[in-house]
Amino acid sequence: PVFAGMNGSAIENFSCVIYNIFLMNCTWQAGRDAPADTQYFLYWQKSREDNEMECELYIKDENCRNMGCIFQNVTIGTEKAYFLVNGSSKDSLIQFYDEYIDLYKIEKLMPPSNITVNCDEIKNDCIIQWQRPQISHSNKDKCFKYEINVKYK
């Protein structure tokens, strides 16, 4: 059966974020009814053409249970990525959790760089320039909007 395993044993509150351009951090909580010895394992597949990969760097809780993962060298493709977290226990079958995620939607952008401000007191104006942050999924500027908050001293 697709949902074989003890009810309430699958992970909860799964989330991932991509940061610093190529790092991805995924976290979750143990199922509320999972046995104490349950260990979880995360697999992901960037696209249908790519191989499924298991986490290489798990984040563990105080009981050495896998509660998250850090992936390095992540690139964002056009397809939704597939995530699967399954579990094992000596006492019972553990339900799996899976989800498809658009990776570009979970990327936390870096702030703009090379910010310069040049003010002309005679003209009473300022020119503020910056470079957009580096991102992993596109070279286009069209999806960036900036807000400038000017505070006078």
Largest sheet: 4 strands, antiparallel
What order do the SSEs take from the amino end to the carboxyl end, as H and E? EEEEEEEEEE
Q: What is the quaternary state of this protein?
A: single chain
Classification by helices and strands: mainly beta
Mean pLDDT over the full residue set: 87
CATH level-two architecture of the domain at 12-105: Sandwich
Helix proportion range: under 10%
What is the C-alpha radius of gyration, as a whole number of Å? 22 Å
* CATH-defined fold name of the domain at 12-105: Immunoglobulin-like
Keywords: Glycoprotein, Membrane, Receptor, Signal, Transmembrane, Transmembrane helix
GO cellular component, one term: external side of plasma membrane
Main location: membrane
Domain Type I cytokine receptor cytokine-binding: 13-106
Structure notes:
It is a single chain. The chain starts with 11 loop residues before the first strand and ends in a 22-residue tail after the last strand. It has strands at residues 12-19, 23-29, 39-45, 53-54, 58-60, 66-71, 81-88, 97-101, 113-120, 125-131. The chain has no helices and 10 strands. With 153 residues, the protein is mainly β. The strands form 3 sheets. A 4-stranded antiparallel sheet has the order 1-2-6-5, with no helix packed on it. A 4-stranded antiparallel sheet has the order 4-3-7-8, with no helix packed on it. Strands 9-10 form a two-stranded antiparallel ribbon. It has a domain at 12-105: Immunoglobulin-like (Sandwich). The chain is elongated and about 80 Å long. The model has no long low-confidence stretch (mean pLDDT 87). It is 0% helix and 40% strand.
